[in-house]
């Protein structure tokens, strides 16, 4: 399987008045046309890894890597124009909460059309038709009605599906989903995951699924990277996650509640200083 994305020794640093914060420390992995999960606690560097790949790291941060390549393009040396052309067209990112990702003063349909027209020369009628088809593809029942609504007029689940439609309208090869279901209820979560699963299978996309929900990742992804303090501490097949070797991964698994089991109080993760080395 040829690699769609190659990451070697990725580092993201944030200079502050009290010193340098190393958010990502030497992360390396390759991604083919598969579903790769990245899990870990808040602050472990998951989102910053995704943002570095997208080129969305804040300007004051320092990003370095031995290799950061997508489809033969060196992302570190790519010009701002090349980066803009890639974003939305070949690489897309679904952010965590649609409330902060969608423009509140533009209708949902206009935002999706704007994304398409940024990357393809299409007429107004064709752009509208394709946007409506994409809204239908993410299981929005009345696309024509939702097309004209504003973000505040739809539920969180529908907003997230509109966000997914916007990210997929230009047919990306790589999709980075940063906790795309954390703001949704369980039934809508399953619908969104089903949409992503179908798109990966039908379009042959590569998917990086960032989450803190180990149970969700183990059932949805092919492989899992476990991050702690900016580093990957374990890489394992998702189906084998229950047999993880690293004490941090086992600790995370052990902290999950089990239905029907008397586990009061729930175990607390006992972090070891050597895990961060």
Structural write-up:
It is a single chain. It contains 10 helices and 11 strands. It has 277 residues and is an alpha/beta fold. The longest helix has 18 residues, at 186-203.
Quick structural summary:
With 277 residues, this protein is α/β, with parallel strands linked by helices. The chain is built from 10 helices and 11 strands. Strands 7-8-9-3-10-11 form a 6-stranded mixed sheet, with helices on both faces. Strands 1, 2, 4, 5 and 6 form a 5-stranded antiparallel sheet that branches.
CATH fold-level name = Rossmann fold
CATH class, anyone? Answer: Alpha Beta
The number of helical elements comes to 10
Fraction of residues in helix: 25-40%
Number of strands: 11
The CATH superfamily is identified as P-loop containing nucleotide triphosphate hydrolases
Looking at the overall shape, the CATH architecture is: 3-Layer(aba) Sandwich
Euclidean distance between termini CA atoms: 32 Å
Overall SS class: alpha/beta
Average pLDDT, to the nearest integer? 88
Molecular shape: globular
**Uncertain segments of ≥5 residues (pLDDT<50)?**
none
Cα-atom radius of gyration: 19 Å
Determine the strand fraction and express it as a percent band. 15-25%
Order of helices and strands: EEEHEEEHEHHHHHEHEHEEH
Sheet bearing the most strands, described? 6 strands, mixed
């Amino acid at each position: 399987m040829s690699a769609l994305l190659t990451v070697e020794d990725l580092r993201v640093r944030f200079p502050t008045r009290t010193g340098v914060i190393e958010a990502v420390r030497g992360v390396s992995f390759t991604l083919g046309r598969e579903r790769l999960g990245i899990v870990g606690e808040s602050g472990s560097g998951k989102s910053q890894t995704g943002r570095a790949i997208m080129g969305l790291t804040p300007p004051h941060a320092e990003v370095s890597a031995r290799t950061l390549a997508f489809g033969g393009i060196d992302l570190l040396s790519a010009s701002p124009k090349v980066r803009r052309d890639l974003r939305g067209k070949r690489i897309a990112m679904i952010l965590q909460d649609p409330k902060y990702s969608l423009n509140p003063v533009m209708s949902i349909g206009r935002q999706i059309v704007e994304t398409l027209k940024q990357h393809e020369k299409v007429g107004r009628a064709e752009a509208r038709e394709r946007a409506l088809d994409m809204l239908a593809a993410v299981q929005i029942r009345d696309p024509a009605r939702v097309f004209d609504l504003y973000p505040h007029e739809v539920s969180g689940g529908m907003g997230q599906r509109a966000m997914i439609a916007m990210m997929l309208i230009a047919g990306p090869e790589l999709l980075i989903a940063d906790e795309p279901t954390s703001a949704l209820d369980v039934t809508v979560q399953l619908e969104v995951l089903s949409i992503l699963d179908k798109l990966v299978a039908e379009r042959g996309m590569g998917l990086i699924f960032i989450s803190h929900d180990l149970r969700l990742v183990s059932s949805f992804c092919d492989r899992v990277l476990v991050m702690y303090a900016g580093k990957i501490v374990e890489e394992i097949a998702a189906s084998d996650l229950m047999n993880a070797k690293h004490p941090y991964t086992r600790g995370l698994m052990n902290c999950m509640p089990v239905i029907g089991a008397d586990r009061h109080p729930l175990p607390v993760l006992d972090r070891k200083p050597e895990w961060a080395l």
